[in-house]
Structure formats: structure tokens, C-alpha cells
């Protein structure tokens, strides 16, 4: 069975993602009770509890960490060079073997990586939850935007139906 990772409100002022996650949780609960879920689903409805606490004059902020000024959706740990160097000699022609090798190296590297601040700890926690997923959905919204999805050309066949269903324009 595969794994789907879904997070909402990484920018804590993007409250509709939390609402979507709540409705999704209700529906997933029904499917689970019916024995119809075929994959592990990790749902993180509030990916940014630190930002959720940031309120000024009754207005939720939650897009930038107040202490450092860093965007909550930036500067995640980049292990691409480290993992690439570790696995290069161990890759084979077997895609399943390579996928498991990459995921295991990512898990080990993320668990060994130290967190020096609450913001780094939050980022690492989210990366650890998502690093072995077959699909990652990061729910965002804005005050003014067209429906859109970020994906890769390789993943397009898997997300095209979702894109059309949502009416994504980009």
C-alpha cells in the first residue's frame, strides 16, 4: 500500500485549508469504516501551529515567523546533494529498489538533522512525515488567485484528473 501526505495551513493565515482538511477527515473516516481506503493517509490539518498563534489586533498573521522574519514555506532542509552522493553507487535498474533506497536515506538524514529553533523543528517534523509519501498535497489559498496546482511533468498523468476536477487554470 502507498502513502498520501496532505498538509494544510503552512501559512497559518490560510484558514480555508483547515476547513478543507476537516471535511476531508470526515470523508476519509467514512471510507475507512467501510474498508475502502487502500493507502495510508497522513493528514496534517494545521501544519503551522507556531504561525497560528501569531495574531495582531485580531488579524491572523502566520505567514512569516516573527522572530526571524522567515517565510514558513521556505528554507526546508535540502538534502539533495547529500542523498545523491550517498546513493549514487547503490542505484540499480530496479525502480522499486531505488525508490526504497532514496526514501530510507532521506528518513535517516532527516532524523539525524538537528533542529536549533522551533521553526527548524517544525520544518523537520513536516519533512519527516512527508519524505516517504507517494503523493504530497500542500493545500494553500490566497485572497486573490486562480485555481492552480504545482506538479512535475512526470507526475502529470497522475494529477491530470484532479486538475480538471478542480478546474485548475495553471
Describe the structure.
This protein is 42% helix and 12% strand. It is an alpha/beta fold and 170 residues long. The chain has two domains: 3-75 and 118-139, no CATH class; 78-112, no CATH class. The strands form two sheets. It has a three-stranded parallel β-sheet with strand order 2-1-5, with helices on one face. A two-stranded antiparallel ribbon has the order 3-4. β3 and β4 form a beta hairpin. The chain is globular. Keywords: Hydrolase, Metal-binding, Zinc. It comes from Pseudomonas brassicae.
Which secondary structure elements does this structure contain, and how are they paired or packed?
Layout lengths: L2 E6 L7 H18 L6 E5 L4 H4 L2 E2 L2 E2 L19 H8 L7 H18 L5 H13 L4 E5 L16 H11 L4
Parallel strand pairs: 1-2, 1-5
Antiparallel strand pairs: 3-4
Provide tags for this entry.
2 domains; two-stranded antiparallel sheet; three-stranded parallel β-sheet; 170 residues; alpha/beta
